[in-house]
Task: structure prediction
Amino acid sequence: MKAETTVKTWEKTRLQNLVRHKSGRYYARLYLNGKEVWKSLKTSHFSVAEARLATAQKEHREHKGREVSASGAKMTFKQAAELHSKRLAGRVNIKSATRHYWAQILTAVLKSWPGLAEMEVRKVTKAACRDWAAEYAKDASSTRYNNSLALVRHVLAIAIENGILYSNPAEGLERMPVRLKMLELPTLTQFAAFIEFIRTRHGRFSVHCADFAEGLAYTGCRISEAARIAWKDLDFASKEIVVMGDAVERTKNGEIRRVPMIPAAYALFKRLRDARANEPLKTPVFKVNECQKAMDRAAKEIGMTRITHHDLRHFFATICIESGVDIPTVSRWLGHKDGGVLAMKTYGHLRREHSVAQAQKVSFAAAA
Result:
């Protein structure tokens, strides 16, 4: 009578840390913080497993050398957030304004979730994440909510990478649908009165504020881009503006772009240059870099809906489209890099008065 053969579940191989399961699959046997970590190499072929083992060991060594030590098992959310911020600070492909924005989001999250900062990440539960999200969504805009949720996920992912969490408790939370802002922009008549009111207030910066507001409306530049336009950036011969943005970080999309001067922009810049012809080429064209208070006062006095600096960028795009400029072209002028997708979503609808006027051109009458 033959003795029964016992099939071992795991079989050693000639390579250290490489074992073979009875199913034929190979696994890497590694260690993290004194605990075994088993990783499937997803193959039954020894040569493939050998190559994948080397990769797994390299990744494991990097993992062990990351931001936290074995004592990191007690990492708090604040500590994980600091590591996340440190990573952002080390990224050269994002701007300082972006890092500042995420710092603001972190502050808002910690303020909205009492006790989270000092809570150990391994004690952050799915239920707690759901409760926070439900309360936070009541007051936050969809964009602020979605970005806050993304931050919480990213911070908890730090703990996962360092072997403190197995899964992300915030992963199952749903994003809020983002609804585009309904643009309430002035008519051309209102805008003319708006600028005139700002210009004639006899304040120290009234004239400069009016010039800056016109510059935003006539170029479509972001406020940071318009504030940095210097005389050297104006090509009166070709009627173009070279939009540089920040001296170090350039424009929002990191590119220099040339924007044609519409007639109103050419007239504005020509008037300003004629009045200040002796200024060096590096001198900024506009004497102020913001004018929101003056704009608020003017809108209130003439009975117009309040608008922001960025709304003047929308105003520029809307007037261009209503004047017959195609959306992809307007998109390029604005510095978008998506071929017009965002512009179509934002400006694809026309203002009511323009829509009514255009409707009168539609005819079903048979041709004579």
